[in-house]
């Protein structure tokens, strides 16, 4: 027989296969996707070659060097580089950090314009930190560069990473070093790098640029204050400085790990806010107008009146937090309308009491920022109070007591709109403000602002009303009242410590303000009516009513 019919049989089977419409359709789709993928891969390899060819290397700059540069090694590098683009990773070689044992000759990559050096692995004690400056944590996105950059921007000499997610800054290391093998935890936001370990810090020394060095002197001006009665007890460190300037005094107190720098003519005093020196009674700044010997345009105070600055040193007296030692059956709500400062109030309460707060919900971003009570069930009894935005008789009566946070609705509505479309410390876009989202939001949420407060006043068993504006204006007194309401003993030192770091990580910068008033006359008429309703309800309970800035103008 002729071989032609035999060869035609497979072709005939293929022909019959493609005559089935569903199979034919999906087959063409598969072929199309395969062809597209091949073109994409080819363009990716070509761009890698063209991009790196000028520098003489075919490897992706994000891939750590090592091994051969040809054959299979080169293909692997190209493929990894392609994946880096697919997932939109930042391709800046100078900003990639790796432990020294992954480097040739132990060299460290560093951000452009800033040199860093890995010092080693150190013990870190929660009661006595190795680095005692500011600290922050992120259980989701922590990287070596992020920690280094944050510490460098604040003018610190050292940056340390611990437990894969914690970052500590400081001007000197106050702990012994240990074997590098004990810093063995991967960074939460960068699996290829190591970020310390349990009670172990991977520490880097930062060679600060001139810009960072200038920012090191950017302490916060606190005001002019009368000399404390017992200055050596109130401000335990002091020295006479030749050619005194603000920078010199701030630098000295920062180096000595104090959060306050007080200038008194040629003398510099350092310490922390205490009952002996609370910073609550500011004097007229003219009483401190004495030029510094080393800088004519600065005021250095005198022997009777001190010019005080807050340094970048973190006051650790209020940083320890834990769960309640015994489970409580007394459930206290921290209730508020969304956007009324509930997260900020939780931050303040945790610092003031030393206990975690809980939540009726679960927000992973808040848990990753250090609110450990976020993951507990709200009825667990392990937290000092429970965040809730709920209203209604049934939801309110499950709580034995409540702190009710109220905020100016004009501010609260905008804050919640920003949170909804931009995250806890982000901002809604102009498109959202000018689009249909904002009018619809005000229509639905403004009545809720009033009904939320009215429900808690009506159904709450024991209610402590706290106005956001009053807490902001007089934090010490208002927070003290909240601690007492929670049934805890007040620690004045902790409250003074909270005042120095009251903003936490949940304050919007305020730099992106709208250039126009988003409220229409119709919106204002509705909201003003709601304010009057809430004000009347508060006064019926013999409370002070809403603050004057709420009231319709």
TrEMBL record:
Residues 115-207, 218-312 form the WSC domain. PROSITE patterns: WSC (PS51212). The keyword Transmembrane applies. Residues 48-58 have a biased composition (Low complexity). InterPro entries: P-loop_NTPase (IPR027417), Sialate-O-sulfotransferase (IPR051589), WSC_carb-bd (IPR002889). It comes from the Eukaryota. The chain crosses the membrane at residues 25-45. Residues 48-77 are annotated as: Disordered. The keyword Membrane applies. Belongs to the WSCD family. This is WSC domain-containing protein 2. It comes from Sinocyclocheilus rhinocerous. The gene is wscd2.
